[in-house]
Design goal:
Elements lengths: L5 E6 L8 H10 L3 E6 L1 H4 L4 H8 L18 H7 L2 E7 L1 H8 L6 H8 L4 E5 L3 H5 L1 H12 L3 E2 L3 E4 L5 E5 L3 H12 L9 E6 L4 E2 L5 E2 L6 H12 L3 E6 L11 E4 L3 H11 L5 E4 L6 E3 L18 E3 L3 H4 L5 E8 L3 H11 L4 E6 L11 E2 L1 E5 L4 E3 L3 E2 H18 L2
Length: 397
């Protein structure tokens, strides 16, 4: 998504400017061509050489740069940019942009560009909540600027309040989402499930499985980056939340079924990457079951088959995590559950099981056509799945 994208990264004179070095580095590592434009105040906090070393590109700090930067003008940057991101955005820069002031390189670029502009305010809480700042932010939003709100936390002054720069992963996510908003899934609603359900035995124990949720999260992120409106229904995982999507947290199979039923009402596709428990305890103990001298016997009953039971005109994409007879079992599920597509993987294979960052899958469509993919990252697998989903959705028009 970021490969070969031209990103103008505006850095202003907020104390959070030091954090932007990490953002510049991560964007560059992801394949983006990053040009940093710094206000004079920002150079007092972080040296331009830092950003030049991280991006491999010269840093622009003045309107009238000496050679070799003299060829870089605000018009060049504005025309070439795929996106402009201002991180951090001070109250001052927000006010200037809202007022149409162009008195330095960064404000000139913003005024001249037709690319989307992402703004990440970060400042003292009192400055952020000031009605003037809020009015200026409202102006930017009304003009199509994407504003990433600051978060609540400890500020540079020592105070605690809303004004802290969000995590860099959050900002990266919004940049990716913004770049992909005209992608092949733009205007489509995709519901994705992730993780392994937890069926309570008592208040501290549950029946679960080894699913990490990584595959579902990768699908949700990839769909977001291709322009889709994504709802992620997830069980508890150790994974970071994904910026720019609606996330619904559940635990049990029943909770997931209820959430899927609600979200699927507006869906174009349901991608059930979650490992839903096949069985749950018939009864749940109200208190912790104490360890006794003998054995413990649990009576279990079947859970709902969510993807089979949920109704709608949306595409249904299922997953088959198998330990034997991979293709035969996957094809059986494809037919029995009336799926449009199934993604099968042998979880006993090295680097392809639960918790791995890679996967080796076989994708089978409802016509029986089979595609065997090599071992690849789960994000790459997600895009392969969405390639097929995109084509199928186009065919439904």
């Amino acid at each position: 998504m970021l490969k070969n994208k031209m990103i103008v990264l505006g850095v202003t004179g907020g104390i959070a400017a030091y954090k932007v070095a990490d953002l510049a580095s991560k964007l560059t590592q992801a394949g983006a061509n990053v040009t940093v434009v710094m206000t004079w105040e920002a150079t007092e906090l972080v040296k331009p050489l830092t950003f030049q070393a991280l991006t491999g590109n010269p840093v622009v700090t003045e309107m009238f740069e000496p050679a070799p930067l003299s060829g870089i003008t605000h018009v060049n940057l504005a025309d070439e940019a795929d996106i402009v991101a201002i991180v951090p955005a001070t109250a001052n820069i927000i006010a200037k942009i809202a007022g149409g002031i162009a008195d330095d390189m960064l404000t000139c670029v913003v005024l001249a560009t037709k690319a989307p502009v992402v703004v990440a305010p970060a400042m003292h809480n009192n400055m952020y909540v000031n009605p003037i700042t809020q009015e200026n932010i409202a102006k930017l939003k009304s003009r199509g600027f994407i504003v990433i709100p600051p978060v609540h936390g400890r500020l540079a002054s020592g105070a605690v309040g809303k004004g802290r720069l969000p995590e860099i992963t959050e900002i990266m996510g919004i940049i990716q989402q913004t770049l992909g908003r005209k992608g092949d899934l733009a205007g489509k609603s995709i519901v994705v499930t992730a993780g392994g359900t937890q069926e309570a035995i008592d208040p501290v124990r549950f029946i679960g499985n080894r699913s990490s949720g990584k595959m579902g999260y990768a699908v949700a992120e990839a769909a977001r980056d291709r322009g889709a409106d994504v709802t992620l229904i997830t069980t508890p995982t150790s994974l970071n939340s994904i910026a720019g999507i609606e996330t619904v947290k559940v635990q049990s199979a029943k909770e997931m079924k209820d959430a899927v039923g609600k979200a699927a009402a507006k869906a174009d596709a349901l991608i059930m990457a979650a490992a839903v428990a096949d069985y749950m305890p018939k009864t749940t103990a109200a208190q912790k079951i104490k360890k006794g001298a003998g054995s413990l016997t649990l009576e279990v009953v079947k859970t709902s088959d969510i993807i089979s039971e949920v109704k709608g005109k949306f595409l249904k994409i299922g997953f088959a995590a198998e330990t034997e007879n991979l293709i035969a079992n996957a094809r059986k599920k494809l037919v029995n559950k009336n799926l449009d597509l199934i993604v099968a993987n042998d979880v006993t294979l090295k680097d392809s099981g639960f918790g791995a960052d890679t996967n080796k899958v076989v994708i089978i469509d409802k016509n029986g056509k089979q595609e065997d993919l090599p071992l690849m990252s789960k994000r790459e697998v997600a895009d392969k799945i969405l390639d097929k989903v995109g084509k199928m959705l186009k065919g439904k028009k």
